[in-house]
Amino acid sequence: MLSGLGRAVRSGWRRGGRQSPVLLSGRAAQGRRGGSPLPSALQVRLWKHTGAWREQVGAPYRTLVPSDEVTIDYRHGLPVITLMLPTRSERCQFTIKPVVTTVEAFLQDVQREDKGVERAEVFAADGCKVCGATSMEVLLRNDFILVINNIAYCVSPPVKDKLSSEHATEMEDIKCLVHRLYVALHLEDHQVRKERELLRKLDHLKEELFPLEQMKARIAVNANAKTTRLLWIGLALMSTQGGALAWLTWWVYSWDIMEPVTYFITYGSAMAFYAYFILTKQDYIYSDARDRQFLHYFYRKCKKQHFNVERYNQLKENIAEAEESLRRLRQTLQLKLPVQEIKDKD
After folding, report:
1. Residue 123 CB partners (closer than 8 Å, separation 6+)
2. Is 53:81 a contact under the CB 8 Å cutoff?
3. Which of 180, 249, 293, 346 has its CA 20 to 30 A from that of 233?
4. DSSP state letters, 190-230
5. Taking a C-beta distance cutoff of 8 angstroms, is the pair 11, 32 a contact?
6. Which pLDDT score, from 0 to 100, does residue 75 have?
7. Global pTM?
8. CB count in 10 Å sphere of residue 223
9. What CA–CA distances, in Å, run from 249 to 1, 215, 236, 265, 267?
């Protein structure tokens, strides 16, 4: 009785003066036309329970067509859906790639094949509409309903035989062999194309970097000159301080008077060095202090001349990455090694 429920025609009965749709099985419809009585109440209630959502207002389709109108079989490992085009009244086959093809793409193929298809939707067995982004691989796991121009087709996909472990291992070996063959045939061409792309990229980056390099060189020369001048000024001040203390000690005052003065000068210098450590979190080392002062002058000059330091650093990083990729590409033995391993070996 359940197998006959998939084949139904439209009929109806009157309840309270209004005609309501009732779906009858194929055998019941034949009995109706032959003058036999209507199907039993149990048969009607069972169909109404399994397809109650189709009796609601705005039902998604009107006519239920036997499932043999749409067939699915596997050829060369791919599912082939055969269905009847409504306008041309001819059967058409659609080869599906389960992993790549989606439900929306399949329905669009049907509409492109037959321009008379105005509506194409897919519903699950329980009446829920299937999302267009669902892959066909997921859809073909269970029964579903294909609706084309208000005509519903009950589709029961065949159960695909699972591969045995030995056959699966053989398939994996074949895939690996095909991959190696493809790499062997196309690797050299890929290397040449990739090398040309990297060379073009390097030329473009170096052209964009060249004016920034010239501006950076001018700013660096100016900042270096100011830093060197500041160092010489510091040496001159220290020499002047030493000469002044000597003159005051031997010609103006005595050592007994100047000794407390030199003590407080030394203590003040220690306080200045300690303040430098608090502000910079670094010891007062002459080379580090010089580099810090150079960067101070450099960035202040960059701001005045509108030199884009971030863009300059980004270009330098891109050039370094392109050169590293080009070096790896030209070393055939290291093509399959990760970057970390190559750096460790170098």
Report:
1. 60, 129, 130, 144, 145, 147, 152
2. no
3. 249
4. HHHHHHHHHHHHHHHHHHHHHHHHHHHHHHHHHHHHHHHHH
5. yes
6. 84
7. 0.43
8. 20
9. 125, 52, 20, 14, 19
pLDDT tens digit sequence for 272-316: 889 988 988 888 888 888 888 898 888 888 888 888 888 899 999
Q: Given phi > 0 = left and psi -120 to 50 = alpha, else beta, which region is 35?
A: left
Q: DSSP characters for 275-341?
A: HHHHHHSS---HHHHHHHHHHHHHHHHHHHHT--HHHHHHHHHHHHHHHHHHHHHH-GGGTTS-HHH
CA–CA dist 232, 234 (Å, integer): 5
Spatial separation of the C-alpha atoms in residues 35 and 85, rounded to whole Å = 34
Structure tokens belonging to residue 249: 């000690």
The token duo for 156 is: 């029961």
Reported as a pLDDT band with limits 50, 70 and 90, residue 252 is: confident
Q: Is 36 exposed, middle or buried (0-12, 13-18, 19+ CB in 10 A)?
A: exposed
Torsion sign (Cα): 172, 173, 179, 183? positive
Residue showing tokens 């025609």: 9
Structure tokens at 313: 């650093």
State residue 61's pLDDT score. Answer: 54
Q: Which of 333, 328, 332 is nearest to 343 (CA)?
A: 328
What residues does 64 pair with on adjacent strands?
152
Over residues 59-91, the pLDDT tens digits come to: 455 555 555 678 888 888 788 888 888 887 888
Strands 18-25 and 8-15: antiparallel
Tell whether the model's pLDDT for residue 96 goes beyond 50. yes
